Structure formats: C-alpha cells, structure tokens
Amino acid sequence: YVLPAFPAIALLLGQYVEGGGLRRWGGRVALGLMGALSMAAGLAVPSFAESQDAVPAMVAVTATGPLYICLVLAGILLVAAALVKPQAGTLAAGVLTLGLVFSAVCALPAAAPYLQAGYLVKHLPTPLPQDARVAEWRTYSQSIGFYTGRRMVLVDKSGELSDRIGKPDGPAEWFPSGAESLERLARERSVLLNLNRENWGDWCRTKASGLYRPIAANSVYVLLGNDALIAAMGLRPWPLESVTKPPVLLPARTQAG
C-alpha cells in the first residue's frame, strides 16, 4: 500500500534535482549527511554481524561483507559529491541503491534458513497428508500458509484477523483459544504446528506439548508434529534437548535419513 507513493516521490525529487537543488547549500548538506550516515552504518555492520545470535557469526560476517563495502563506498562517494561536485550526488545515490539490492541478494539466502519459518516448511522431505491441519500457537507466519497451501488454525494469535472471529467466514475452529485446543486437535487428526522460539518455554509447560514432537527448528521458529503426522510423513523427530538457544538449524529428517 506504500508503493503508489513512490512515483510521486520520484517526480518531486527529479524536479528538485533538475532545478539545481543539489548545488544549493541545503542539497550539499543533505548529500554530506547521507554519506556520513552511510559510512557509519557500514562501519557498524561487522560488529553487529559478530554480536547477533540468530545466525552463526562466521555466516553473518561473510554474508554481510558486500553490505559493508557498499555502505562505506557509497558514503565516501556521497561526501565527495557534496564537497566537490554536487551534480554527481545522483550517481552516488544510485550506487548506494544498487549496492543495497546486491547486498540483500547475497545476505538473504544465507540468513533465511536460520530466520524464516517458510524455509523449514519448504524443505519438509515428504508432502503433508491430505487431512493434515496446519496450526500456529501465539504467532502468525504467512509463509507457512503459502508453502503448505492450507488454511491456518491460529491459536491465541488472531491479530488483524480478530474482526473475523464469530463471523460466518471465521468459525471458532480456525481461531481457538488455549493450548488445550491443540490437544484436542492432535487427537483428531495429523497436525503440523508452528511456534515462535520465544514461546518454547511456555509451550513445554502445557499439557498439549506431550502430544507433539519437534520435527524442524531454526533460531526463530520450531515446527512440531503429532504422532499421526510423523508416522504419515515418515519423519524422525528431534529430541527436545536439541532445541537449544540460537543460532540453531535443525532441518526435517526422515526415518531413513
């Protein structure tokens, strides 16, 4: 819903540049500030990559290398443009934009396995049973529904869908409350359950947790299945103690593997 604003912003900026805005003191100051912020952000990237705990430090440092180079180089170009040739500011800004896109292309594939629920579902070794229900407890990840192609059962997490509860197209079976609803669901059919790592401790203290076992996990999410799902898909669950503090990546595995 923000995209329609970009053409108007582009026209306004184009008019400002064509009118000599970058040669005025305000344009020069803006270029200099953008360059300084870009360099400061770039210099902070390596320390952030080493200190964060969601992705292994070596993976994070390697993946963010292009981002570090992009921010520092673009910052130098922006500051130089502000001091020497303001008209080159558009070229420096273009280098920054293209560099950010290239950096994202390099970093996201390395980070996705540790951060995205969709990655865990996408790499399930066998298809979900036809009668399986896909549920989430205290979280809502759109990628789960995308990769499974199933309607989600949202337990204790309706979010922006709360206004549909109680309506004809929002029956209570899709928006139940309490972990006991997952206990009932596990006794009725095969269930794939997704939850956030921050709720792992609370989940382990529920009665329903005894009916589910981890089948995949990363630094942010844990996928669990009940016995019916695990048997139907031929999966080999992970021990509870395998779900440790991040960074962690436990892909789904079969009994044969």
Question: What report would you give on this structure?
Answer:
This protein is α/β, with parallel strands linked by helices and 257 residues long. Helices cover 50% and strands 11% of the residues. The chain has ten helices and five strands. It is elongated.
Supply the key terms:
257 residues; alpha/beta; 10 helices; 11% strand; elongated
Q: What low-confidence regions span 5 or more consecutive residues with pLDDT below 50? A: none
Sum up the overall morphology in one term.
elongated
Distance separating the two termini: 45 Å
The side-by-side strand order for the widest beta sheet comes to 2-1-3-5-4
H/E element sequence:
HHHHHHEHEHEHEEH
Over the alpha carbons, how many angstroms does the gyration radius reach?
A: 24 Å
Q: What structural class results from the helix and strand content?
A: alpha/beta
- Helix proportion range: 40-55%
Strand residue content: 5-15%
Can you count the helices?
10
Number of strands: 5
Give average pLDDT, whole number.
88
Instruction: Describe the main β-sheet briefly.
Output: 5 strands, mixed
